[in-house]
UniProtKB/TrEMBL annotation:
Keywords: Hydrolase, Manganese, Metal-binding
Signal peptide boundaries: none
GO (cellular component) term, any one: cytosol
PANTHER family tied to this protein: ARGINASE
Family statement: Belongs to the arginase family.
GO MF terms held by the record: arginase activity; manganese ion binding
Origin species: Frondihabitans australicus
Protein name: Arginase
Top-level taxon of origin: Bacteria
UniProt xrefs under InterPro entries: Ureohydrolase (IPR006035), Ureohydrolase_dom_sf (IPR023696)
Length: 261
């Protein structure tokens, strides 16, 4: 339950009139005959989130939970000129065939790139949102990833996906990587595990040698100064206690401020 508590803690600090809550089913869910665990729940959340996003013309900041919410959020925001910057300790590029856990959160970016189309057909989820283009590998920049499965590493090389290492990440390098895709707009995904656990505590799967919060905020600001923001996601806040949530909230609000200003 730590992820739901983290999402609720962030929600409580956002402007109530500009925010909406999408409930996540608490039951076990059903894989619908696929290798994606709880695919029925993934589909239910996707459909409900789509309805909420369709009701607004504003640029949305979608807060998880885990990274699974990004499947719908990215598809809703994507345009022909959009690149996706994926700030995450993990690339989330597994397919249902390569994932050892079956957790959708570890294959959400892969799904956006078409690696789970057959499975989504079983859940009556279209391969792309109506009226939006398909995300292509050439329009993805992985920033801060440092824990790869072998299958993800192979796919990154095969698809030619751009990566910017967490080690001594330079904001200007990320900006130039996006510019090299030819994009003029950007969707920014932030999984909080991109941060170094010595500087941010509320993580389920902390990975060492991550970004400093100040570096992440500066990079977001420089991306927004260069490209139009079409959407953003913030995921994976998992505080152990309410007191721990309060300790991390200052960092989170600085990130939210950079994404939502």
């Amino acid at each position: 339950m730590r992820l739901s508590e983290g999402a609720n803690a962030i929600f409580g600090d956002l402007p109530a009139k500009a925010s909406a809550m999408v409930e996540v089913p608490v039951g076990a869910g059903d894989g619908l005959g696929t290798a994606i665990h709880r695919l029925s729940s993934v589909a239910a959340v996707s459909n409900d989130l789509s309805r909420v996003l369709d009701e607004s013309t504003e640029v949305a900041l979608v807060v998880g939970g885990d990274c699974g919410v990004e499947f719908t959020a990215v598809r809703h925001a994507l345009r022909d000129d959009t690149a996706v910057v994926w700030f995450d300790a993990h690339p989330d590029l597994n397919s249902p065939a390569t994932s050892e856990s079956g957790a959708f959160s570890g294959m959400v970016l892969g799904a956006l790139l078409g690696r789970a189309d057959g499975e989504f057909a079983a859940a009556s989820l279209p391969a792309a949102a109506a009226g939006t283009p398909r995300l292509e590998p050439s329009r993805v920049v992985l920033a801060g990833a440092r824990t790869y499965d072998d299958a993800e590493d192979a796919y990154i090389e095969e698809a030619g996906i751009t990566t910017v290492s967490a080690f001594e990440l330079d904001p200007a390098e990320v900006v130039e990587a996006v510019a090299a895709t030819g994009a003029s707009s950007v969707y920014i995904h932030v999984d909080l595990d991109v941060l170094d656990p010595s500087e941010f505590d509320g993580l389920l799967d902390p990975q060492p040698f991550g970004l400093a919060p100040a570096t992440l905020v500066q990079t977001i600001q420089e991306l927004r100064a260069r490209f139009e923001l079409v959407g953003a996601g913030l995921c994976s806040f998992a505080p152990a206690t309410p007191e721990a949530a309060a300790d991390d909230m200052g960092t989170i609000l600085r990130i939210v401020g950079a994404l939502a200003r």
